[in-house]
Amino acid sequence: MIHPDTELRYINSRIGYGVFATRLIPKGTIVWALDDLDQKLDPDYVERLDPLRKREVQKYAFKNQFGQYILCWDKARFVNHSFHPTCVDTMYDLELAARDIYPGEQLTDDYGTLNLDEPFDCLPEEGTDRTRVLPDDLLHYHQRWDRIAEEAFRSFHQVKQPLGFLIRPKHREKIRAIVEQQAPIDSLVHLYCRAERKKEESKE
After folding, report:
1. Which of 178, 77, 189 has the alpha carbon at shortest distance from 141?
2. 204 is a domain residue
3. 72: nearest Cα among 137, 2, 175
4. How far is Cα 188 from Cα 195, in angstroms, rounded to an integer?
5. Out of 29, 91, 121, 198, which could bridge 97 as a Cys pair, Cβ 3.0 to 4.6 Å?
6. Does residue 188 fall inside a structural domain?
7. Parallel, antiparallel, or unpaired for β 132-133 and 120-121?
8. How far apart (Å, rounded) are the C-alpha atoms in residues 50 and 14?
9. How far apart are CA 41 and CA 48, in angstroms?
10. What is the pLDDT at residue 41?
11. Structural domain of residue 90, as residue ranges?
C-alpha cells in the first residue's frame, strides 16, 4: 500500500502516470508496505498467462527474492523509476522516504531493486552515468542503497508512520533494533532473485 498523502497524476505521453506527494512526507517515513491485498503470482502461473495479461503483469509487477511477481493493488504500481530516487527499498517488505519528499514531488524508485526480467532503457538524468536498469543491478549497487536505507531508518521514530500497522510481525523486532542502532541493517543484496532458490522458501 502506498502512503496516503499521495495522488496519481498524468505526466506526459512518454512517461504516462506517476505518484506524487500531496503533503510533506519526511525522510524515514514508510512510503510503501506490502499489503495482504497485493497479489503474489508464481512465475509458472505468469508464464502460462495469455499474452495480454502477461505483458501487463510484467509491466506493473516487480519480483521478490523468491521470483514471485508482486502486483500492487493500488497506485503503487505507477511509481516511476529514477537513478536519484526519493524512496529506498529494504529487506522488510517496505520502502522508506530516502529524503524529505515535498508536496508536488514525485515518489520514485530505482528499478534496479526490482529484479527486472529484461534491461530497462531510461531517460537521461544528470549526476549519473547509468542509462539502463539491468537485472543484476542489485549485485552492483546494494551497498549504496543499504547506506541510504540505514540513514533513513534513523528518522523512523521521529516521524509519523500511517503505514506502520502494515509492518509484518516477523520484521518488527529487527526494525526496532535497527532504529535503535542495536543491529545492522540486512543488505538489499538478499533481494536478488536467484533461480536456484527452493520453492518452499516462497512460503515463508
Report:
1. 189
2. no
3. 2
4. 17
5. 29
6. yes
7. antiparallel
8. 26
9. 11
10. 97
11. 6-199
Q: What is the CATH number of the domain that holds 177?
A: 2.170.270.10
Cα–Cα distance measured from residue 116 to residue 122, given in angstroms and rounded to the nearest whole number: 13
Residue whose grid cell is 516521524: 159
Tell me what the pLDDT averaged over the chain comes to. Answer: 94
Residue 202 scores a pLDDT above 80:
no
Domain count, the chain: 1
Q: Name the E strands within the chain.
A: 6-12, 16-21, 30-33, 39-41, 62-63, 69-71, 80-81, 87-89, 94-97, 108-109, 120-121, 132-133
* Nine-digit cell string for 35: 499489503
C-alpha cell at 170: 516477523
pLDDT reported for residue 23: 98
SS (H, E, C) 134-189: CCCHHHHHHHHHHHHHHHHHCCHHHCCCCCHHHCCHHHHHHHHHHHCCCCCCCCHH
* Low-confidence winner among 1-5, 122-126, 133-137 (lowest mean pLDDT): 122-126
Instruction: Judge whether residue 183 has pLDDT over 90.
Output: yes
Burial class (CB in 10 A: 0-12, 13-18, 19+), 109: buried
Give the three cell numbers for residue 28.
Answer: 524515514
What SS3 state is found at 59? Answer: helix
Evaluate whether residue 23 is within a structural domain: yes
1 is a domain residue: no
**Cα 106 to chain center, whole Å?**
14
Percent of the chain whose predicted confidence (pLDDT) is above 70: 95
